[in-house]
Design goal:
- There is one protein chain.
- This protein is α+β, with helices and mostly antiparallel strands and 277 residues long.
- It is built from ten helices and eight strands.
- The protein folds into two domains: 182 residues, 2-Layer Sandwich (HIT family, subunit A); 54 residues, no CATH class.
- It has a six-stranded antiparallel sheet.
- Helix 2 packs across helix 4.
- It binds zinc ion.
Length: 277
């Protein structure tokens, strides 16, 4: 069994992992991450759709999404109770900690096969956080918020405004192509052709998820998550993430490639915020 299957054992035999399993029933197993990248780092492992890619698993499946959403709430509650076991955290306003200092979501390219949702505190103060990739996998667009996986998101008016602005911008970009000697429609055709997959890969627009967070929509448009093309794009995406600068999760300071400086700074930030620990 490869390391990519490392989570399967928790689904098969949760009773054998009492130290790590926080909760299990017929639907899910909730565990502490074996290599926590923050003070609190839990994983929700739904039993259903366990071998689906996280960006697809909830696709047009609101029932499943809502079910897992309930387990996200449960995990937060377990975490809130565990705060009390740490002296300094116990003094905090647990509700506020849960609402402002947690991230819930998935990696757009998971390293482990079984579907898992991360619930992680934003301190990233952990000896297991050992390199830029570890950090950026939670602090860039590589991490997709669970909310964004909702198949039928309730759009608020602000989001609708942003959509409209984006459309207007795309339209004005198309108009400027007229200056390059192409009509807007010819230019659209060219653009469409460039986006089209080779003819051997059938397009399935009816399967195109409409809820995927925009930066990843190109990964999946009309293609299977496991096609060679998608894998190539996934790899490219990983490389891009390795290149993005390191940004402090507390104050937004840019550390570029200086991972060890960021680690020192994260420790300072942690001590400042949770000074009595
Ligand atoms: Zn900072």
């Amino acid at each position: 069994m490869s390391f990519r299957d490392a989570l399967q054992t928790y689904l098969d035999n949760p009773e054998r992992h009492k130290d790590q399993v926080l909760w299990s029933n017929e639907d899910v197993v909730i565990i502490r991450d074996l290599y926590p990248k923050s003070t609190f780092h839990y994983l929700i492992l739904p039993k259903l759709h366990t071998h689906e890619h996280p960006l697809y698993a909830f696709k047009e499946n609101e029932i499943f999404y809502r079910e897992v959403e309930n387990y996200v709430k449960l995990t937060k509650e377990i975490l809130r109770q565990n705060l009390n076991k740490h002296d300094a955290f116990a003094k905090l306003d647990g509700e506020n900690f849960i609402n402002t200092f947690l991230k819930v979501g998935v990696h757009s390219i998971p390293s482990l096969k079984n579907l898992h949702i991360h619930v992680i505190s934003k301190d990233f103060h952990s000896p297991r956080l050992k390199n830029k990739k570890h950090y950026n996998s939670f602090n860039t667009d590589f991490f997709v918020d669970f909310e964004k996986l909702c198949p039928y998101p309730r759009q608020n008016s602000e989001e609708e405004e942003e959509e409209k602005e984006k459309e207007a911008m795309l339209k004005s970009e198309a108009d400027t192509d007229i200056e390059s000697g192409l009509s807007a429609s010819e230019s659209d055709d060219l653009e469409r052709k460039a986006d089209e997959p080779p003819e051997t890969i059938p397009q399935a627009p009816e399967n195109k998820p409409h809820h995927i967070y925009a930066p990843f929509s190109h990964l999946i448009a009309g293609k299977s998550p496991h096609s060679p093309e998608t894998k190539k794009k996934e790899t490219n995406r990983l490389e891009d993430i390795l290149k993005s600068p390191l940004i402090c999760s507390y104050c937004g300071r840019n550390f570029d490639n200086k991972f060890s400086s960021l680690k020192v700074h994260l420790k300072q930030e942690f001590n400042k915020k949770f000074s009595s620990i």
